[in-house]
Amino acid sequence: MTNIHSTTPCLLLDTARMTRNIERMRTRLQSLGVALRPHVKTCKNIDIARQLTAGQPGGITVSTLAEADYFFEHGMTDILYAVGIAPGKLPAVAERMARGMTLRIILDHPQTAKAVAQAAVELGTRFRVLMEIDADGERAGLRADAPELIESANILERAGCHIDGVMVHAGGSYRCKHIEGMRRMAEQERASAVAAAERMRQAGHEVPIISVGSTPTATFADDLTGATEVRAGVHVFQDLVQAGLGVCEIDDIAISVLTEVIGHRTDDGKLLVDAGWMALSRDRGTAEQAVDQGYGLVCDASGKAFDDVIVTGTNQEHGIIGKRDGSPLNLDRFPVGIRLRILPNHACATAAQHNGYWIVDSPEQAQRWLSRCRGW
Ligand SMILES: Cc1ncc(COP(=O)(O)O)c(C=O)c1O
Questions:
Q1: 104 lines ligand 1 (CB under 6 A)
Q2: 161 alpha carbon – ligand 1 mean position (Å)
Q3: Domain annotation covers residue 245
């Protein structure tokens, strides 16, 4: 394996920052009396997932079956696959359940419920299902008062499936302009899930799991009464979007992309580096926020951020770095060959571009490598 001194671009992980982020969320959820079921699509690494679940019931949330397989191979059995199930994946889910994985799936449509019911009969599998509830009209889910909720649960029950609960993700929290908005969104998320569960219970379903969460709502929820678990994920690394929302500080961001200066554009006072969108992703999540961070905020090689220097453009393997206000950089400060670090807009998207992390928490660990699982 190459080391961080020979390969750019590469992904760096500051484990001291990560540990602080993990502990902050753990303390917060403990004080609210609710368990964490971390969304491990952010880290996609077993060592980090073990740190996230330490002292917790141990369940995880995943976004792909490849993640489910990877974490199961490493001993994690209680897995929520939190993307609406595609009927074509049901044989793969059944096969994993037969191998001992407690794999739960989610759905939000009676047609999907019928497909799951049919597959349950054909494959002889009692699928474990959480109904997806919509709290904010942002993406997927049934409203808590939708007739299809009970209809779908009844279809599943008749086929012998387990209706294990409800889940909701208030992605609208990412659009909030103030902390008060995220607080309200957290309550909206909690209340929708609890109301949906209540209706299902009245219709005769047990609904043991009420699963809520995003990092912004988990960070600002005042009360999670009724919720049995919270699915935060990006809090493990934090990112510029979270900093822009007020969820964290820039200094909390635990991952960065190490890059090297490969040229100067003297005409407009910009730098060229060897990290383009392949290394940073195309995510522009801060574009709508008060401070637009371009394709990432630039730091020196030690990780100290320049307040006003951002990646202004990306090609596949080129990044263009300039001042946020468009004025020219003092290029003498950035000679060809020096290394910079770039903080990501969206940690999940940037990390997904890489095969693993170089750990940079201490000199003796500077060479340690953690791999990430990939694919679907
Ligand atoms: C269904 C679901 N649950 C939980 C999360 C975690 O939210 P966050 O990334 O804000 O921590 C996500 C993130 O996309 C999600 O899609």
A1: no
A2: 25
A3: no
For the Cβ of 213 lying below 6 angstroms from any atom of ligand 1, the answer is yes
Q: Is the peptide bond before 9 cis (omega within 30 degrees of 0)?
A: yes
Q: Is 21 touching ligand 1 by the criterion CB < 6 Å?
A: no
Range of the domain at 304: 250-371
pLDDT over 70 at 1, yes or no = no
pLDDT in tens, 91-136: 999 999 999 999 999 999 999 999 999 999 999 999 999 999 999 9
Cβ(39) – ligand 1 distance below 6 Å? yes
On whether residue 160 sits in a domain, the answer given is yes
CATH number of the domain encompassing residue 114:
3.20.20.10
- Is 137:146 a contact under the CB 8 Å cutoff? no
Q: Which of 237, 272, 295 is the last residue of a domain?
A: 237
The string of pLDDT tens digits covering residues 225-271 is 999 999 999 999 999 999 999 999 999 999 999 999 999 999 999 99
Q: Is residue 3 a part of any domain in this protein?
A: no
Residue 4 forms part of a structural domain: no
- Cα(112)–Cα(115) distance, integer angstroms: 5
Q: Is the CB of 234 under 6 A from ligand 1?
A: yes
